Amino acid sequence: MKKLFLIFIILLISFQVISETLPQYAPDKHMGVASCSTGVCHGKSVEDKTENVMMTEYRAWLKDDDHSKAYKTLLKPSSKNMAKKLGLKAAHTAKICLDCHADNVAIEKRGKKFQITDGVGCEACHGGSERWLSDHKDPGATHEKNISLGLYPSEKPADRAKLCLSCHLGTENKFATHRIMAAGHPRLSFELEVFSQEQPAHYKVDADYEKRKGSISSVNMWLSGLVFKANNQLQLLQSEQFKQHGLFPELSFYECHSCHRAMSPSRWPIEPLSNNITTGSVRLDDAALVVLSSLLNTFPNLNQSEFNSSIKQLHTASLTNRNSLNIKAQELLSSLKTYAQVIVNKKYSINDKKALRKTLLSDASKGKFRDYSSAEQVFMGIETLSIDLKDDKRYQKQLDKLFEAIHYEDKYYPNQFQIIADLFLKQL
Ligand code: HEC
Ligand code: HEC
Ligand code: HEC
Ligand code: HEC
Fold it and tell me: Whose CA is closest to 61, among 199, 163, 167?
């Protein structure tokens, strides 16, 4: 009993340690990409087999990684247009744009070689290198020591999720509002595992890497991403970012497609989605929550129906008033925290992973994911599971069909998604 209690405490800590300060706000100076990128450091043209890291990171970032182009994006006509519509002097000097499109640390935290034009540079993710730059390559340096000197632990799912979501979802301090979206900004969609794979990798998870940093399976990375996305959304809902703008709250918290889609054909099922989410309701974006809730079906000791009912209550509250919404968001946050211990830390067997995929497809085939943003998350989850299960080639056709159904958001039809999921399910 005592032992069980101890384990519980350790797990609790591992979910709650998301207190690592984001690189943008930590005290260390950012020395600039040019401090990392020389030909004897991370700017080599071919991999250096004598080192434990590739040493070609700078080239991978510069050539293939959109983060190196994030500042230049602010100089494009599309950004100039947005700036005009928003009444900003220029996008590339506006704090709101730079906060996500560059390593926008305070002026006093910029080293000699720092250049804002580098966009989302190394230290925007790895933390200001003021205290670890000179020593991190010494034989005596360890990963733990580097972290204690300000390196950001981007290998840890909780910290990575917090980092990526800070720009790919937003925070209390920087947020892509509906006003920004309507001025032309793309909708922000994010899933931790798929986006981690899509960012051109400048690292290899080999035996040496695992020894230094451990390794996280792609399924655990995906589930951590879902949990933290839901967690951050629920926190943001209670923040100033959600405040009323006149009659309406901040619309970016809602499922975009509950307002933005063609008026025909009629897409609503006969049954309401919950007591008051019926035809014509504007709905909060609950994609991460409903996907998690579906997955709870495979955890016999977690209470799926309670979680489901909390999501419904959140929706009801969202159509009532701000105060009830705060209360429900807080309640849901606490149950999410307890469920997260289990979901994030579990070691998933092949059968567990198959069960996760089956439950998603089964709920999709029953029309549970009607909103675009949840269908999109379901696709990314099923893709991640299939790649992890190494049967993605076998189910290539089915995965392609599912992708086609969500590829163009303006041409998404819930009934079609449902039918494709049903066919996929029958072929498992
Ligand atoms: C400081 C803000 C910031 C952080 C932190 C950040 N990103 Fe990004 N990311 C951006 C911006 C801005 C873009 C768009 C760049 C452009 O095209 O101008 C982007 C683009 C991307 C893209 C390409 C998206 C596409 O549709 O092609 C991927 C993939 C991506 N990020 C993954 C990640 C991952 C994974 C993390 C965490 C390890 C992360 N990002 C952290 C700001 C950030
Ligand atoms: C909360 C963070 C955030 C803020 C604030 C933000 N962006 Fe972005 N922006 C992103 C991310 C992340 C992407 C990549 C989206 C994706 O592909 O998934 C992006 C993509 C873009 C794109 C499309 C990229 C391309 O390749 O064409 C443009 C243009 C853009 N942003 C301009 C702006 C401008 C101008 C502002 C300020 C008014 C701004 N952004 C504010 C995070 C942000
Ligand atoms: C958008 C976020 C992002 C940016 C920008 C970024 N990295 Fe990384 N980097 C990561 C992630 C995520 C990992 C993998 C997790 C880890 O090991 O920390 C990683 C890993 C690494 C590693 C560790 C490899 C290992 O085997 O331990 C090095 C070295 C590295 N990056 C260098 C760089 C350099 C140099 C730059 C700039 C040219 C850069 N990174 C830019 C996110 C980023
Ligand atoms: C409550 C309904 C509602 C929600 C939810 C909503 N929008 Fe809007 N959106 C509107 C309205 C109303 C307009 C103004 C339409 C007009 O001017 O023709 C608008 C305008 C826009 C425009 C500009 C269209 C144009 O022709 O200039 C874009 C882009 C946009 N929204 C994107 C989004 C995104 C992305 C989301 C989700 C993050 C979202 N919206 C959520 C109601 C909504």
Answer: 199
